[in-house]
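Sanity check

After download, print the first record. It should look like this:
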Amino acid sequence: MTAISRRALVGTAGAAASLPAFPVRAQPRAARPIRIGVLTDMSGPYRDPTGPGSVACARQAAEEFMAAHPGIAVEVLSADHQNRPDVGSGIARQWYDTEGVDMILDVPTSSVALAVSTAAREKDKVFVNSGGAVVELTGAQCSPNTVHWTYDTWMLAKSTGAALTRAGGDSWFFITADYAFGHALQRDTSAFVESAGGRVLGGVRYPFPQTTDFSSFLVQARASRAKVLGLANAGTDTVNCVKQAREFGLTQHTKLATLLMAIADVHALGLETAQGLLLTESFYWDLNPRTRAFTTRVRSKLPGGIPVGMIQAGCYAGALHYLKTVAAMGVAEARLSGRATVERMKAMPTDDDAFGEGRIRMDGRKIHPSYLFEVKSPQERTGTQDYYKLVGTTPAEEAFRPMSEGGCSLVRT
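Expected structure tokens:
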């Protein structure tokens, strides 16, 4: 079992959280702290876009909340799920059963996220997913105890896949991580490619997370003569694919579709290598005054100078909305039922500096716009971490799969 680290949060923050949408009940100071467990990738391919940065953003939310609600104490725990569903599920159950964790947050790696969602439902606790992308979390495997916050494969496929196909990239080949996330991302992107008049010429799945050499897969992609190579992966796998594709000269004739590329990956690649790539995110630090204010507050707490990304911002926003809900319900009542707490989270409008105003649908899907970005060239950059230029925006109500198409049992017609 992975070792579990615990740190109590104390003190105040530079900016207080917004007041909740419902009246706040008085809280006894002696009440046991609310415990949030950040279950994430601390050592694998998704460490930089999630990992320690997700923990830092959850702690930022807790600090801001406690500054506004000094009668409610919050603790943030963290653990590494090693990208294994059995490890992630085991930690989740231990946290819920014996560690007093009230809500689990983040959980990159879709297979682990699905396992944790099941555990949260069985234990009647709360799960706010930011890192997992699989759309089934709000579809066939939706749960009354789960909120899917930041992004999903349908959002990525619609924004990036459809845009590239309309721009002339009408033939595709996929390199896909062989687990739930990769399968879903290839499936959803293929649907948008074909609906836009394009064709999928083939694809290859590789063992995850064991693969670092993608040369044989890139040879197959070149042999297909596809105009677009779709990378249905993320993290260091995407970074390695982009580097090796450029080394092979594949990008001279083939457009790379980085279907899930985080700003941490662009940071790792550098603009010389990443320039011109198209990608979709639901948060960028330089979008507006509120995103810049949030970034200013949290930047010094992030490890290694890596820019704050959308998954980490989702941990901040998801934790903050959960805590506002706890304050509105009262700690004791919120602890009685995770399902009831999630229902209240859905009833309350969302509002935070990372994503602005939004809402949570009946199926658990958090709604906000998605943004199509192009990575700048080194010559276009005007400052540190100035990596993106905005190409297009998908409005919140159009960015995610319609509830009527998901098959979620929670959706009432």
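If your output differs, re-run the checksum step. Summary of this record's structure: Residues 310-329 form the longest helix (20 residues).
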